[in-house]
Amino acid sequence: MASDSAIASLGVEGAASAAHVLSLPADSFGNNPQVEVMWAMKAYNHAEVYFNLISSVDPKFLKLTKVDDTIYTAFRETFKDMDIKMLHPDLLKSAEAKESWRPFCNQFEDVIEDFNYGTLLRLNCEQDYTEENTIFATRIQFFAIEIARNREGLNTPVFTAKANNKS
Question: By residue range, what is the domain housing residue 41?
Fold first, then answer.
């Protein structure tokens, strides 16, 4: 993976420095391209770990946070009819969607660490992360949608496809 070699090239001290930098408040950086690359690598690594997880363990049994039940209940109360199998970007990015998502996300500000960090989210839950199948979302949006996908069995095809390839 390109991100693996980039992280390895930093060395132990460089990786520790990068981790420290990423823990600082975002407003202390402005538009620093190096920080943007580090954020992108962190988001990519998170996506890779998550996809490997749902490929290896039946997603119906995964617990992503200590408050999965609360997140799932709040998500389905707020977004009752949202089709999460195949997300359309407008469900997350339109002005109307942002007005719905903002109060939902903010209720988890003191509950989920880094609730508003940028995360990669798959549009079609039956496919891997690709440029065409990925959107940038907040961490709480990722948790809400992926917890729902796991509970509703929508991520199961990813797991079964990997299991079938092992046979």
Answer: 2-166
